[in-house]
Design a protein that fits this description.
148 residues, mainly alpha, 9 helices
């Protein structure tokens, strides 16, 4: 079990953290290195949905962020806890390797069963267009295939 209250810096070696600082200092006019340094001072539970999405997009703390996304979905008992960000969160989750997703197979199976059994995609029509529902279902199918 990962400690969600542990500051991300503590998951890095001293050398890795020094590289993050050096990168942020050298490229202080660029938002990405600055953001990377900022998130190392946060714990998983303090990361925004945007931070979670960006971490996977940038391949930063991917294993930790995968865990956090799945935990948030599990705690809220719905993959739509993030409203409009839910589609991109599921997209990023589906892009993670099979090996990483398999670690959380039981929670993912429960999440997918909840979505399918309760027709949650159809119930998301308040903010999700039909095309987006199909896209979302595609991400669910990718995850299902990866964890089989």
């Amino acid at each position: 079990m990962i400690d969600r209250k542990k500051i991300l810096k503590e998951f890095l070696t001293n050398e890795e953290y020094e590289a993050v600082i050096q990168n942020a200092t050298q490229f202080s006019d660029m938002p990405l290195p600055t953001w990377h340094l900022e998130i190392t001072r946060k714990c998983l539970t303090d990361l925004s949905n945007f931070d979670l999405i960006r971490c996977i997009r940038q391949d930063v703390f991917t294993d930790l962020v995968t865990f956090e996304i799945i935990e948030r979905i599990d705690e809220q008992n719905t993959p739509f806890y993030a409203d409009i960000d839910s589609i991109e969160l599921m997209e990023k989750l589906s892009s993670v390797s099979s090996e990483m997703l398999s670690v959380y197979k039981s929670k993912l199976v429960r999440m997918i069963e909840n979505i399918e059994k309760n027709n949650l995609i159809d119930l998301a029509d308040i903010w999700m267009f039909d095309e987006q529902k199909g896209t979302y279902q595609g991400y669910i199918n990718i995850i299902k295939n990866k964890i089989q």
